[in-house]
Write a structure and sequence with these properties.
The complex is a heterodimer of chains A (242) and B (119).
Chain A: E1 6-14, E2 24-32, H1 38-49, E3 68-71, E4 74-77, H2 83-86, E5 90-94, E6 101-103, E7 106-107, H3 110-118, H4 138-143, H5 155-159, H6 161-165, H7 171-182, H8 191-195, H9 211-215, H10 222-238
Parallel strand pairs in A: 1-5
Antiparallel strand pairs in A: 1-2, 3-4, 3-5, 6-7
Helix pairs in contact in A: 3-7, 7-10
Chain B: H1 12-37, H2 47-55, H3 57-83, H4 89-115
Helix pairs in contact in B: 1-3, 3-4
Classes of the chains: A alpha+beta (242), B mainly alpha (119).
């Protein structure tokens, strides 16, 4: 572990399409202590050194998913990444890979949200809602325990090699969300839910590379969710329901 | 609701058969390697001993099965690689048919080599 209360060099990717220059990395000296996060370092630069630096953030507590960036070779949330934990005197920050850059560390998430909407990411019911709530047993809740923790930061989407190649592929985040509702005891979309993902742009484009699982800052496994969806689709097919 | 959704599942059989063929190939390749290289007391390789082996119905079935499963596994793998580039549905159909025709053609070509030993 590196010593604290000292400066680190933070290199931030800079690109402004309005200026028309090639992208570059700007270096900044940032004082840190043992608790300083990458997001705090970025705010230090923004407020005291260079007000032109652009990045996204909101909750500062790993809940909103806004501040996902490529930090020292890995997709991470800037707000929950402490600089001392990186164990390096240099912090290199780039926007999420393979997404169009709007400016500096801000990426265009339109494609990500388009895929997210394709899996109909909401509870679909066919009967009237109960007066109070849809009850769930402990086991039923446990089935979706992990998947509901997704914060839609796009770390998995950005690290998935299949998403890089195949622009139509739903990708790990959308498929994890599809699984979240397919496994939800209250959802009544049934086969229609599976049909949304049972195609060449859906679960069968996943080759279990596990980049998404490695990069998820919440410790979730979209790969597991995709494999579960494959199993469900196969079972429906084998039992002539699909 | 259903009018906005895909009407049928695609790619399910290709996916599961790729896994099934992988397991079958492990078995068939094991038999193939064993028969070719590790049968104790096997005479020197010469035409007559090979002829006797190839005339065995079991050998012919295993060999034809090996060829069939290898072709399926290889061509389906190639299909997945091509699909990974995000080609359109029209091109996907074209790729499917080209690979099916090529695979069946190569299977027939391979089996025809056994023909003179059959019967």
């Amino acid at each position: 572990m590196m010593a604290t209360n000292q400066n680190v060099t933070l290199k931030a990717y800079r690109y402004d399409p309005d200026v028309g220059q090639e992208p570059r990395y700007d270096s900044y000296q940032v004082p840190i202590d043992e608790t300083t996060t990458v997001l705090e370092a970025l705010y230090y630069i923004l407020e005291r050194v260079d007000g032109s630096l652009s990045f996204r953030s909101s909750c500062r507590s790993a809940v909103c998913g806004s501040c996902a960036m490529f930090i020292n070779g890995m997709n991470r949330l800037a707000c929950r990444t402490q600089i001392v934990a990186l164990n390096s005197r240099e912090v290199r920050i780039a926007p999420l890979p393979h997404l169009p850059v709007i400016k500096d560390l801000v990426v265009d998430m339109a494609g990500f949200w388009e895929k997210y909407e394709r899996v109909r990411p909401y509870l679909i019911t066919t009967v009237a809602s109960p007066d109070k709530e849809w009850p769930q047993s402990e086991e039923e809740r446990k089935a979706i325990e992990e998947a509901i923790d997704c914060i839609l930061c796009a770390c998995c989407h950005s690290s998935c090699t299949m998403s890089w190649w195949d622009k139509g592929y739903l990708g790990p985040a959308a498929l994890l969300k599809a699984y979240r509702f397919a496994a939800d005891s209250r959802d009544q979309a049934g086969l229609e839910r599976l049909r949304l993902v049972a195609n060449e742009d859906g679960v069968f484009r996943c080759h279990t590379i596990f980049n998404c699982t490695e990069d998820c800052p919440k410790g979730l496994s979209p790969t597991f969710a995709i494999q579960e969806l494959k199993k469900r689709v196969l079972w429906k097919k084998l039992t002539f329901q699909m | 609701m259903s009018e906005t959704l895909a009407s049928k599942a695609q790619g399910v059989w290709a996916w599961i058969l790729q896994r099934v063929s992988a397991v079958v190939l492990l078995l068939l390749l094991g038999i193939h390697m064993g028969v070719m290289h590790y049968i104790p007391g096997e005479p020197l390789i010469e035409f007559t001993s090979v002829q006797v082996r190839v005339k065995s119905l079991l050998f012919q079935v295993v060999d034809a099965g090996l060829l069939g499963f290898v072709l399926y596994h290889a061509f389906n793998g190639l299909r997945a690689v091509i699909f990974d580039f995000g080609i359109s549905e029209g091109w996907q159909h074209a790729v499917n048919w080209v690979l099916i025709v090529a695979g069946v053609g190569l299977f027939i070509l391979g089996i025809s080599a056994l023909r003179s030993f059959i019967g």
